[in-house]
Amino acid sequence: MKNGKLKLEAVLCLLLLSILSSGTSFGQEEDIFGIERKISRKSESNLGNVFRNAISRISLEVSGGAGYHQNQLNFLSEAPQLYPIQNHLDPQLPIETGHPVGFKGDGFAYPFNAGVRLDIFGIFTIGGGYGKEIGKVGDFKAGDHQFNLEGASYSFDKLYGTFGLILYDARRRASFLRWRYGRYSSSNYYMQSELKQRVRQNYPWHFILEGEYGNMNISKPFDRHLAVHEPYYALGLRIEREFSEYTKLFIKPAASFVSMAYERSVPVNNIDVQEMHELKQTLFTVNIGLSISIPGAKRCKVPGCGVVMKHLHNGVEYRGSSIWNLQNRKVGQWYK
């Protein structure tokens, strides 16, 4: 009985020593390689630390793409003969007075955007920026009638704000995997090991449902009677692919909705009447862009320090690599 008790105490002592030694070695790994799992400082001063933590949530981005737009002009006038409307079958046949007509057309557009984005706790994103859209419109037709515009090419300027909801990323993937493996017992070491390996895998994808709202200014109209009085709005799905902690490439299919007006003064009973005809445009675009996050941690310049991962010097976190490279790398990713 005494021998059994002594053996049990010896086993407990060995287990305690192994735990202490593993903790010590883990601490050494943190000192050597800079693997710090606690929130570390990014500056020696408190104000600098707050500032650097704040800017690390900000990213700058540029994008460009192509799109296809559909237009509908809702026309209703007391003097349609004064408008540039032509009948293909009989040019002398005017359109009916007081009869509403929907002219439809299409065309192509090429948008370009530059903006800034703020990540809020990995749940939402807010941002804003400036956009430029250039394109061409086709003929506006309704049956045998055609509404002749003064030109075809145009350019719009946009100032916009965005709000995004992060649907899926590495953190949500990890939560999903833990829920999926929750049906297995904690004593099932094989499945628990598989879960840990899958959670630790690098998952570089982000899926964000994003809305856009802003004002549009016509810098070059396709017709001088065109005007914009209302903001536009858009909805898209943003798909991001991380190449490092600071750089992402993204693609964003979206649909935007613009309400414009065709305004013209026409004489009715010897009185000039300002008529306004609604022009609705639906634009379907696909944008490809680059997003660069502002690094909160400074690049390490300590002489003789060759650590390429994030690491600490006097309690302050530094980057060991360029923003284009992964900072905390895994096996097979150790390149300078």
Strand order of the largest sheet: 1-3-4-7-8-10-11-12
- Helicity, as a percent range: 10-25%
- Write the H/E string, N to C: HHEEEEEEEHHEEEEEEEE
Q: Helical stretch count?
A: 4
Uncertain regions spanning at least 5 consecutive residues? 1-8, 14-37
Give the overall shape, derived from the CA principal axes.
elongated
| Strand-residue proportion | over 45%
Largest sheet: 8 strands, antiparallel, barrel
Structural class: alpha+beta
| pLDDT averaged over residues | 84
Radius of gyration: 31 Å
Q: What is the terminal separation in angstroms?
A: 60 Å
Number of domains: 2
Number of strands: 15
In words, what does this structure look like?
By secondary structure, the chain is of the alpha+beta class. It folds into two domains: 33-56 and 297-336, no CATH class; 58-293. It contains four helices and 15 strands. An eight-stranded antiparallel β-barrel has the order 1-3-4-7-8-10-11-12. A three-stranded antiparallel β-sheet has the order 2-6-5, with no helix packed on it. β3 (101-120) and β4 (124-137) form a beta hairpin. α3 (170-180) packs antiparallel against α4 (189-200). The radius of gyration is 31 Å and the shape is elongated. It starts with a helix and ends in a 17-residue tail after the last strand.
